[in-house]
Write a structure and sequence with these properties.
Strand content of chain A: 15-25%
Domain Pyruvate phosphate dikinase AMP/ATP-binding (chains A, B): 21-57, 61-298, 313-368
InterPro entries (chains A, B): ATP_grasp_subdomain_1, PEP-util_enz_mobile_dom, PEP_util_AS, PEP_util_C, PEP_util_CS, Phosphohistidine_dom_sf, PPDK_AMP/ATP-bd, Pyruvate_phosphate_dikinase
Radius of gyration of chain A: 33 Å
Distance between the termini of chain A: 40 Å
Cofactor (chains A, B): Mg(2+)
Largest sheet of chain A: 8 strands, mixed
Strand order of the largest sheet of chain A: 13-23-22-15-16-17-18-14
Family (chains A, B): Belongs to the PEP-utilizing enzyme family.
Domain PEP-utilising enzyme mobile (chains A, B): 432-515
CATH class of the largest domain in chain A: Alpha Beta
CATH topology of the largest domain in chain A: TIM Barrel
Oligomer: homodimer
CATH architecture of the largest domain in chain A: Alpha-Beta Barrel
Chain lengths: 886, 886
């Protein structure tokens, strides 16, 4: 006969810590804690197999199940020395769900089960507390009638409110035992009236009702949706745990508490927790009474007496359990306990959630304590978590003037000019201005402006508002729900509570970690990788195979990235340099020139500027590899769009307005993403790439010749769809590069490669590899084309897609492994089939997203490249991948 | 010893008709003609292997080659009874290239080789015509010095001109023998002076010089480019033919001519050709003298005497050869002949080029004559050629008023309102207006307007102008270079030579086949598939496996397509119906509605209109399958863009201007191709597809219930990237369809499928096929996304790409088999792996392009779908594919 029911209690358990699938997380842990000798209230677990049988059986049970439950209940009665339904010495139980994967709050629970008009007397006698007994009884009826019988919870809640009014009191706790006794009768009458059904007095009927309700709640809409969103298969099913009730609220020798085996905020190794005398679990969390510390480890003046003073025996027992748990689970635990009449019960233990700081400290210290290995330590810190540690913050030395406070919606600090529309934010950002986008609230139409801004400030909206969610997704600093400011779009200004007026263009600073708005451009400090963090990262580096480079366009970014451990630049976008300072004017002259000679004249002016950019970056990277992408965006991105700006430009370059205007119109594209850009531009205007290659090679030659640098520039040609494009441009580049080397009289090795960012490039990678010495997958554009999805426009519906579970994740955040990933894999394999030593990496934003990094490791890429602040994230993810791959 | 040289002459040839690769096309044909007993001037062919040896050997020859040439030359001397370099009885030869694939005019030729100051005397004596002899000699020097010695041809041409001036004559033929003799001396002196090198007197030196020059010309830039454009591999090499010269210009018993074994224009089975007495080959082609007919088959008053009258014996011999050639080659031949002193020589035979009409007639008649099989007949007509036959033409009965004449740049006839800008043409076309785009000339920026227009008229530009080339590519009627009209863009009008003014909005008609511009909307007749054409198509249909459907949105298009043999509709685009008549107003109301109720009110008004559309189409298709694509374009396409139109709309729907304007702006997208469209719209606004499905099913149910139709509507959901999108929309559609069936009380089977038009859909086709009963590959959008190339914007550079050979073909015309094709194949295979009975077709414009149709056959698709006028093209291409596949 199959085993459907697993008992636990008195140091003995049928199950063990390998049975998550069968017993669910909760059931497994209860069995495990019991086995290692912890005082767990006994009980039994009905397995996930019962759940499957339940649904296969038209929501009923095989006879074996009923039999096994009867036996387990008998054993439980014996262990507790009480009788289920015994009027003198009643056993009360809880019935709770417990699925293999955590689904907090999604399924149903029934407490205090076993109470009826007979057993209540036993509880009164035993507790000597009629008020406690009737309060438990009325709570049971409320819970059971709602969860099991399907009664609208409002009805009984309303009766309770009436009773309080009648008694002229505000709180439940102010009702007397008699009041509650009366309520029990009223509740039952109301059930009968509403449901035309008696409230069950038979404990067996109560028990099976509750069990079926909990199994049934596996399929409630809330749980179904949650599973869909979290990728939990419906066929797993849930287990059901029936456990003896214990009470922390039966007098002053009772208590309840929660604790962490180490400090979850800082990771410091001391026993951290709170408890309340004569209270139930909810009371600690609800915050109606002030909890007391469990010990004096961090005692502060004014703290209430600690458990180690008030209940020293129980505390000593608990402290021993803490040690036992850490040695057993080799990780920081989050525990719940109850003391019933001086006896300690463990209700729960699980791996404790912690801040990134704490995670790192705990991992490193546990290695030092010999509890875990370095590999385990690395795996203990989730790469995603590091993000918390990797944003700039305000310089503690700086003078600060806080002008408003809102919600700390997305961490980090940023300064910029106040701008009130997304369009203007985008336009100014293009001109390399730092911008803070200020809106009453944001909507999907603002996405491009949010992308462009350094930070976002909204007057309305909470921690899960559009602005907050999107900003966190982008890793941008955000203060949301800042009701303290009044925004006037017409006047282009906002006013603080103190009446200070901040106009468009003025500088402010946001502290997204504190939710503060500050006046002016407050100095910031870069986050640092030091101490335990540095130790952990060193371990991570020792395990990983994948290299981590950075996407950086300036010497400053290069330096930041190197400090974060970048091993080279994987993507240096040259177009950003075209916007620097006054260059944009020269670039525009180039675009507006009507002939080759005119374009060359302008390019000649840009050449020395580009060269100095590359000198700066090469110097900063000190010989590490640098991949430079030649000009990529369509030319119209460099021209102004509205008539005023066009007219200004016309005056500046001395061309008639109508001519400039017609140029702008001629360059207009319906789908610029799929237009005349990347290598297509260079096929039409080879002189642009010629100038860029010349600048790169002159910079390299100069450093090699004059400063004994060892540099191998990697010249990257973007948007190749057909090998012929690369063939032509490669020939041009080689000609120019060799000519520069000859002129400088030095031999500088260089690589010419391409960005693989179109499906066709992946499919024909074998041909393209004939002309390319390296590939870098541009997974941003590859996602756009593979999905047929414009990142700029997706804001209208993509958030909704993710929310409704149409897509599990935003494919611009986490690489779509099934679709885009297959193309990357295929492109990689085909490229290597032609050229076994082809260097291959990715440089889309996915390069800093952990699941994508792990994918890149798995398929065998050489490196990932990501923004400077994501470099440690990628390093850690790469280490995870390597360790898990062993 | 390898055989490098193949002789032919006197009925004997070393080579045969299987040796194209070795002997080249010309050499193979000369050998073949000799073998079947035709009077071919003897000679020998140096094989393509010699060419390879030549290049492998640093442009020199192995000794065996020299030996074999010497032997072949001896044999030739013997056959001709003349001596090479013999002063009394000299043998003159031609040296010509002849590659395996035809490369007309790309390589070099030398004629009259063997002449020098000694042998000229023999020629004079034999021809008894010193003028002829010296004229041949000076021509030889001009040709040889240029081709072999590398002298600038202009120099000797200049001397010739001087001589004519000196003599006061205009034509070469007016120069005397003495003049020409003097010129020979002058030419040699000029060679010596310019090149510092004597003109070679030694015939052997001349021969080897010419041979090397001809082999060398295989690598001249012209030939290299031609090969690249035509996909001919360089390693094939060319052969060289050395052949005895014969002369048609040695007196009145000499002649030269060209002929076709059947009429190449009509295909009629009679001997068609022209000849000239006492003339060389060039003279017939050059048109200086009027050629005479070879016979009286089509004799017209005023024709010159025919060859069958003037040279009856030679004509009889030639007529016999005609029969022999047709029986031998089983195809219409294009031949060249020369008569030297009464003796007929065959210089060339090759398969004759012909019009589409002729191709069909010849193929059908040759089957009837028992010359070829039906399969061969089908293969004889190129699907591309059919295009000539499949355009509407002006009704011969209609009254016509021609107002201007230009070039017949692209065939067919079209009428519409005169419009002068591409943008306006596009806008009006969207509103279902017929438009003729009139421009001075067109440029890539006009492509979208050309797409939208029914026909294009330009004042400037020839048969290969932008307008002409693009229009032919699009299959649009075009009259180009119509200098007879003066266009005034400011006044929005054009003026004819007769002074007639045609204003914007007036109707004109273009006859692209005649190059005529006509006033008003002249009635047109559809092309017909009848007579031989119908016979051939019936044979084609009997061989093909692939079904051919059509892309049609109206009952009229459906009828045209059915008349052309369409076996169903593969793509019925419902959005076109949204523009019909006044509906656009209601559609706009729907878009501008702020809530579901408002949208539904508008959709309720559209429902009966859509239903009547489907009724019409279903009726016209009489039970053939009809695939209906639900709404695809982004909503902003339905809204006006400029302020005037927005204001008009605001008044019409009674909403404030600012509100309409903000709606328009909100819907603006950066890359609409990759935006909120297709199934994405329906995820956001399910009510739109609900209405469409309701209309489709109501129409189907009505016909099934009331008219006993047998219909299985195929409902197609566009732009699916992820199976979840299809899952949701499929559920909605099934719910609606089943509800309609129930309401009508009939059981109508329907299919729900999807358009596969994104790379991700191809890659995940196995998952998508779980929810789809059919796939239709939308290769237009799939090409755009796979290439990352917007069709609307590609006009800026794609023509240049094709011209420069970066891409061999425009991927929007011929399916890119390597890239896009791989995705189609993969999508097909993965889809079928999930659902073995999945119905699969393509409905992009490639469905009517022959090479793409053949690809679809090869990978196993069920059908292709194309525009009505391409249906016969696709049917024939599908037959080719099936026959070649056997």
């Amino acid at each position: 006969m199959a085993k459907f029911v697993y008992s636990f209690g008195e140091g003995q358990a049928d199950g063990d810590s390998t049975m998550r699938e069968l017993l669910g997380g909760k059931g497994m842990n209860l069995a495990d804690m019991t086995s290692i000798g912890l005082p767990v209230p006994p009980g039994f677990t009905m397995t996930t197999e019962v759940c499957k049988a339940f649904y296969a059986n038209d929501r009923d049970y095989p006879d074996e199940v009923r039999e096994q439950v009867a036996n387990a209940l008998q054993l439980l009665e014996k262990r507790m020395g009480k009788g289920f339904g015994d009027a003198a010495n009643p056993l009360l139980v809880s019935v709770r769900s417990g699925a293999p994967a955590s689904m907090p709050g999604m399924m149903d629970t029934v407490l205090n089960l076993g109470l009826n008009d007979q057993t209540i007397q036993g509880v009164i006698k035993q507790s000597n507390d009629p008020r406690f007994a009737y309060d438990s009884y009325r709570r049971f009826i409320q819970m059971y009638s709602n969860v099991v019988m399907g009664m609208d919870g409002e009805i009984l809640e309303h009766l309770l409110d009436q009773k309080k009014q009648q008694r002229g009191v505000a709180l439940d706790t102010q009702l007397s035992a008699d009041d509650l006794k009366q309520l029990v009768a009223d509740f039952k009458a109301s059930c009968k009236q509403t449901l035309n059904q008696d409230f069950p007095e038979d404990p067996q009927e109560q028990l099976w009702g509750a069990i079926s309700a909990v199994f049934g709640s596996w399929m409630n809409p809330r749980a179904v949706t949650y599973r869909k969103l979290n990728g939990i298969p419906a066929h797993w099913g849930t287990a059901v745990n029936v456990q003896a009730m214990v009470f922390g609220n039966m007098g002053d020798d009772c208590a309840t508490g929660v604790a962490f085996t180490r400090d979850p905020s800082t990771g410091e190794n001391y026993f951290y927790g709170e408890y309340l005398v004569n209270a139930q679990g909810e009371d600690v969390v609800a915050g109606i009474r002030t909890p007391q510390p469990i010990n004096r480890a961090k005692y502060q003046e004014g703290d209430l007496p600690a458990m180690e003073e008030v209940m020293p025996a129980s505390y000593q027992e608990l402290a021993k359990i803490r040690d036992l748990l850490e040695r057993h689970y080799k990780d920081m635990q989050d525990i719940e306990f109850t003391i019933e009449k001086g006896k300690l019960y463990m209700l729960q233990t699980r791996t404790g959630k912690r801040t990134a700081h704490a995670a790192i400290r705990i991992a490193v210290e546990m290695v030092n304590e010999g509890l875990i290995s370095e590999q385990e330590a690395v795996l203990r810190v989730s790469p995603d978590q590091l993000d918390q540690l990797l944003h700039p913050s305000l310089d503690p030395q700086a003078e600060k003037q806080v002008i408003a406070k809102g919600l700390p919606a997305s961490p980090g600090a940023a300064s910029g000019q106040v701008i009130f529309t997304a369009d203007e934010a985008e336009e100014l950002a293009r001109l390399k201005k730092d911008v803070i986008l200020v809106r009453v609230e944001t909507s999907p139409e603002d996405i491009h402006g949010m992308h462009a801004a350094r930070g976002i400030l909204t007057a309305r909206g909470g921690m899960t508002s559009h602005a907050a969610v999107v900003a966190r997704g982008m890793g941008k600093c955000c203060v949301s729900g800042c009701g303290a400011i009044k925004i006037d779009y017409e006047k282009q200004q906002f006013t603080t509570e103190a009446g200070q007026v901040i106009k468009r263009g003025e500088y402010i600073t946001l502290d997204g970690s504190a939710g503060e708005v500050l006046l002016g451009n407050v100095p910031k400090v870069e986050p640092q990788v030091c101490g335990d963090f540095a130790t952990l990262m060193a371990w991570a580096d020792s395990f990983r195979r994948l290299k981590v480079r950075t996407n950086a366009d300036t010497p400053y970014d290069s330096k930041v990235a190197r400090d974060f451990g970048a091993e080279g630049i994987g993507l240096c976008r040259t177009e950003h340099m075209f916007f620097e300072g006054d260059r944009i004017q020269t670039v525009r002259e180039m675009i507006l020139a009507n002939d080759l000679a005119g374009r060359k004249r302008a390019l000649d002016k840009i050449l020395p500027m580009q060269k100095s950019d590359f000198l700066g970056i090469f110097r900063e990277m000190k010989g590490l590899p640098v991949t430079i992408r030649l000009l990529d965006p369509p030319l119209h991105e460099f021209l102004p769009q509205n008539d005023d700006d066009v007219s200004e430009l016309a005056q500046a370059v001395g061309i008639r307005f109508s001519e400039v205007k017609s140029h702008v119109e001629k360059l207009h594209e319906f789908n610029p993403m799929l237009g005349h850009r990347g290598c297509r531009l260079a096929i039409t205007y080879p002189e642009v790439y010629d100038m860029q290659v010349q600048a790169i090679m002159e910079a390299a030659c100069e450093l090699v010749r004059d400063e004994q640098f060892d540099i191998v520039p990697e010249i990257m040609i973007p948007l190749v769809a057909h090998v012929n494009e690369l063939r032509i441009l490669r020939e041009n580049a080689v000609k120019m590069a060799d000519a520069v080397c000859e002129r400088y009289g030095v031999k500088v090795k260089y690589l010419i490669g391409t960005m693989i960012e179109l499906p066709r490039a992946c499919l024909t990678a074998d041909a393209i590899a004939e002309e390319a010495e390296f590939f870098s997958f541009g997974t941003n554009d590859l996602t756009q084309t593979t999905y047929g999805l414009s990142r700029d426009d997706a804001g209208n519906f993509l958030p909704d897609y993710v929310e409704r579970g149409v897509l599990k994740k935003d494919p611009f955040v986490a690489l779509d492994q099934r679709g885009v990933g297959e193309l990357v894999k295929l492109g990689f394999e085909r490229g290597r089939s032609t050229r076994p030593d082809l260097k291959v990496g990715i440089c889309g934003e996915h390069g800093g997203e952990p699941s994508s990094v792990i994918f890149c490791h798995k398929i065998g890429l050489d490196y990932v490249s990501c923004s400077p602040y994501r470099v440690p994230v990628a390093r850690l993810a790469a280490a995870h991948a390597a360790i898990l791959d062993q």
